[in-house]
Amino acid sequence: MNLLVTNDDGIGSPFFHELVRALRAAGHTLYLAVPAAEQSWTGASKTRSRPVKCAKVDRGFGCPTWMLDGTPSDCVNIAIAHLLGDVKLDAVVSGINVGFNCSLGFILASGTVAGAWEGAIHGLPAFAFSQDVSEEVYAHLKDRGGEPDGELLATLRTSAAHAARLVGELAPGVGRNSFTVQNFNFPIPCRADTPVRRTVPAQVHVPGLFSPRPTTARTASSGAASSTSRRRSP
Q1: pTM for this model (two decimals)
Q2: pLDDT tens sequence across 86-115
């Protein structure tokens, strides 16, 4: 199939790289439109107040690749409208996200899910894939630029193989204009025989997203809050 692939962790994400490798190994023709930098927690937002820069790049993926300084929704929208020409897409695939995207609070805020949703509102079958990781592993990957290794790398490659299989099995049966996103969350560890279970998004409260501003002599009485999220997903 012809697949448009995006993510919200940016073009340098090893989780994205493993998904691309698995989809190519499954024989699909890929077109990549990816944020230049991480766009987590952007939801379905689109850039409105400035131009979005786009460049065709070669990052060794072996398929047409564009890097954009916008959100995942920007990437999919611009790719379909301006970059792919006469290419007839069969589906849009987003991920693999670093961290899960389950429960309504995370799904609605997720840039990963939003990238898939942008494909769905263009009438295409759409898939979002996310990989659960521990808080410690997440901090290592995000804050220190760590590469997955050991059990996590084995899990990630198995998850990517599952993703490629699921897209191949499910996309042909999803009708055009169904406005459906298949949202998958891989556990850790994930194995070849890990079953797929259909679930309903939980209605979970997501409080306390922001840390307070550090108290100093100048700011102790201001009551202001920091704008830095301390949550690890979406």
Answers
A1: 0.91
A2: 999 999 999 999 999 999 999 999 999 999
* Pick from 166, 158, 98: nearest CA to 132: 98
Joined together, the tokens standing for residue 178 give: 């169904």
Q: Are 132 and 185 in contact (CB under 8 A)?
A: yes
- Whether residue 60 is predicted with pLDDT greater than 80 in this model: the reply is yes
Q: Mean of the pLDDT values across residues 25-50? A: 97
CA distance 128 to 132: 13
- Give the pLDDT confidence score for residue 64 in this predicted structure: 98
Report the amino acid identity of residue 178: S
| Closest to 91 measured CA to CA, from 67, 64, 120, 130 | 120
pLDDT in tens, 159-199: 999 999 999 999 999 989 999 999 999 999 999 999 999 99
Cα dihedral value 89, 90, 96, 99, nearest 10: 110
Give the span between the Cα atoms of 234 and 110, in whole angstroms: 5
Per-residue three-class SS string for the chain: CEEEEECCCCCCCHHHHHHHHHHHHCCCEEEEEEECCCCCCCCCCCCCCCCCCEEECCCCCCCCEEEECCCHHHHHHHHHHHHCCCCCCCEEEEEEEECCCCCHHHHHHCHHHHHHHHHHCCCCCEEEEEECCCHHHHHHHHHCCCCCCHHHHHHHHHHHHHHHHHHHHHHHHCCCCCCCEEEEEECCCCCCCCCCCCCCCCCCCCCCCEEECCCCCCCCCCCCEEEEECCCCC
